[in-house]
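User: Hey, quick favor. My workstation is busy. Could you predict this chain's structure for me?
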Amino acid sequence: MTEKPTKNSLLESDPAMDEDTMEGKFLTFHLGKEDYGIEIRFVTEIIGVQKITEVPDMPDFLKGVINLRGKVIPVMDVRTRFKLSERPYDDRTCIIVVNLNETAVGLVVDEVSEVVTIEKEQIEPPPKTSRGKSSRFFKGMGKIGDEVKILLDVERLLYDEELQNLGQMAEA
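Assistant: No problem, here it is.
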């Protein structure tokens, strides 16, 4: 059995790593029973859950803000965003800090798995919904052996208006 990676070891890389070497690399994580992935180029760091300060008048999936080394980071619960049932945070729950249009945002997930490479040929378009469109959050379905990872489009997890609100929240 392979050893589970630690939060810090997942992102350790050569400082000379540029975007070309990150192509096809995804940070995978669990939400409920499913495995998801986001492009590693958006990921800044992975941290454990810490005290989240609630901010009034925000959508329910925006849980509030955290203070990360003196910088205020808005936090979104991905479970709530996808309308999955809530579950209490535990010692496996992580916050994946991503950079969205020059704004740092924390994404709360059940558990971080590993960094995997998924070649373009192994990514299929997301399934269509009953309305004939695929969910705007999904970039595709990544095949790794006999497993399928739901690949998220990080840039579409938030609408422009919500992203603008987050930017203002972080500046406040």
